[in-house]
Amino acid sequence: MSTERVVGIGAGAAGFDPLYERGGTGSGSELATTDMVLNIGPQHPATHGVLRLRLTLDGERIIGCEPIVGYMHRGAEKLFEVRDYRQIIVLANRHDWLSAFSNELGVVLAVERMMGLEVPVRAIWLRTLLAELNRMLNHLMFLGSYPLELGAITPVFYAFRERETLQAVMEELSGGRMHYMFNRVGGLKEDLPYGWLGRASAASAAVRKRLPDVEDLVIGNEIFRARTVGVGRLSPELIAQYGVSGPIARASGVDADLRRDEPYLAYDELQRDGVLRVITRPEGDCFARFWVLLEQVKVSLDLVDACIDKLSAMPAGPVNVRLPKILKVPEGQTYAWTENPLGINGYYLVSRGDKTPWRLKLRSASFNNISALPALLPGTVIPDMIAILGSMFFVVGDIDK
Known about the structure:
By secondary structure, the chain is α+β, with helices and mostly antiparallel strands.
């Protein structure tokens, strides 16, 4: 008679749960086999939030993985349907709390497309600038937290130093540190404070100067390489099957980026000027995913500098359009997607001409990225699972919505 042993790791797990018998003799040999089910989470430092992985183990080797999500589900899509289009922005910037500005952007782009609004040029360039600052804030968080999960403490201090430099200019502009609420249908909340572009340029220069500190500390580290090179290879076929996108897909050689492939905001002009580059790497392992994230920060720095130069040379002008007090969207439907820091973020908007959407479906990047784990983890061992999970770059609120 074989048995299955259930083990919990995370808050509330006291160790081994009682054994219970399970029929069958495993491989059919005379020797009894023991399967172990290991719960990583739902609260565990490796899960970036309230995520649970139910792993089936053969010794220390993983033979099955079941991601169990929903612990943070708040019904965001249904809440969208009972709020007007201005109130939706408050909810939209919270599912991926590291990419708040980018989340807001998808909503207003969908509404503007339905209404046929022409956004002022100044607002378009400023949105592009803020989207790239937000992208760097997201990436720097993972550039610091990922080595921490592998035992390297110092990089997180360097990464947070750069985050605070960028957060200062974002907070000055919007008044918020995480949930900016700066997008509006038709543009932005307000124009820039006096001298803000100069301070944003100085912040970009400071991060560019100090970014090699993080790179030198991690990329060449032999322990970090031993834990990541060749570990967790994600093939382009799995990318396509599970709809994985963003830095994770590009680290597997998938050359896809909505900023270039279906340009929005000012990305078309930035691409023509040669500023926008799509970073790819063929290996598809944990190291490649970290490397792509680091290189994307450098690209974002170039994009930020280009936007600042453009805005500095631009005459003063409006950053929004005048809208009626009660905003109603014409009947119809549209789909607006953006290249969020973690991957493709899409909003499917259906309107019946009211002040609230009839349906607003959210396609988040993290859900698809995590969906590939059951195909990616079998055959690996527990320590490698920690390295692989951390390199998938997800936010649990973005999974659960």
